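Many introductory courses stop at the sequence. We go one step further.
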Amino acid sequence: MATKVTPLRKPEARQSVRELAAAEMGVLRFITCGSVDDGKSTLIGRLLYDTKLIFEDQLASLKKDSIKHGTQGENIDFALLLDGLEAEREQGITIDVAYRFFSTDKRKFIVADTPGHEQYTRNMAKGASTADLAVILIDARKGVLPQSKRHTYIANMLGVRHIVVAVNKMDLVEYSRARFHEIVASYLQIAEGLGFESITPIPMSALKGENITKKAETMSWHDGPTLLEHLETIEIADERANAPFRLPVQWVNRPNLDFRGFSGTIIAGSVKPGDEVVVTKSGKISKVKSIVTADGDLPQASAGDAVTLVITDEIDASRGDVFASPDARPEVSNQFTANILWMTEEELTTGHAYLLKIGAQTVQATVTAIRHKIDINTLDKTQGHALGLNEIGFCNISTSQPIAFDPYKVIREAGGFILIDRFTNQTVAAGMIEFTLSRSTNVHRQPMDVTKASRGLLKGHKPAVLWFTGLSGAGKSTIANLVERKLAAMGAHTYALDGDNIRQGLNKDLGFTDDERIENIRRIGEVAKLFVDSGLIVTASFISPFRAERDMVRGLVDKVEFIEIFVDAPLAVAESRDPKGLYKKARLGQIRNFTGIDSPYEPPVTPELRLDTSGAKAEELADQVVAYLHRQGIVGAAVDQSLDFSI
């Protein structure tokens, strides 16, 4: 039975009545996707037109635009309702994602019309990321195309659970039942193994409005629902409401000294006053005192609510932290696997640092391995060392600090992220976390009462990493050694990390390839972080040739705690010193991958200090470092007491 939609004269009244009547069913978010010219925009335009959801001024404008830009002669071109950009209308294609809201007597809808061109795959992924259902349009004349497969796989990867196989333009194949079933069989060969909860085939003609909102006599052999009937009645489980409680902190709300709350939007589960919550990264547990909103306190808040949590105890949390249920915590890890959709011309290769944004937190991240790529035409797994534009890969990722997350398939908002180019600020990839690479999924941070700040107070100075970088022979170790002696003479607590010394123990298993150099610095960064947490001033003397890895270490500690010191000496000067005879061996080919000879060095762009060792004495340069620490308040009068320590 066709769905009956009763129009009212006043659009405002019609909208109000429908919203009230549809409240119980909630909102269905769906996406239309498929290959170019399959009729996605026409389908949505026809849907809006047939349900009397186009206002008179919109209809008048549509008729004019149809004459100017349309492809249907004197008839209305419904695609123009969605193609809002001038470039879209001139080219007759969809470029950007177009969202429309509408409602019937039974339900509210938000529909996203997405591009069919392969070059706009990122826009299709954007629309699918919040959709419950995907309408995959297939031209009855062309059958299943590579883009049909691509969009189906991406929809599945992005968490879409329900599929409508909309075989469009049936009027152009004489409403052939055999052709319809042939296309459906071909599509099911692709999609059945992907684990969708439902796949519903519907034959239709969007242009003629057949099987959109009412049954088509021309396809009486189809005993299934119309598109609108299916959209109105399909049951969508509210997975967010049934998931464990999650609230990413957007900001700390402190309008005065008497109020401190943590503001954000609940992405999963529910919470009420008296419930225990945990700050996932620190492991601190407290109880909810109240749930504050602009309209007053709430007795309970659920997924989708924007609230401010007031906690009974003074616990440390800031933007990017996640409040969760203590008995159902998210993963907290700096290594995990994820599906990545690469969205820019420059290839993704392992070892490069990006910014990873997940929820309200942004950290540095590196793709450490591409485990396999997905051949979008066959869905087979293939080997590869790089991802090109619109390619999908299953990758290992390492972040500069642990982040809280859930697998994407469990809670979308807690497992979805984007990668951002650190220099252009361009979004280069979308990612969906699969699982942690930690050895145990039951490992969570143990809260400690003695903190970094308290350790610093006991030592009488602030902790810091003094990161000396430069070519071999530039003078890093010499200056770092002098700096530590001067600090020790002042009573400061220090520790020295040096490249050659570390490679005799912790990193003795590593060579000097680019990948091994990256791992060398990663390990050293983690050690330096531990020393900073203990309240020490750490000197770290390492060539550390790559900016991305130095930036990775910077991201491990607070911004003010990392001091990059560029020990600058021209290659000729460093080579003339050659205290260990390494340059000579490199020139003779006896040492491979030697920085400055056959491996590059990327000098710092904006270091905190630059020390030119080609003219100044090491003692003078060490004094410059100590003077900088005084200016920054890292050391000062509190520790400036002489000990009988001869230098």
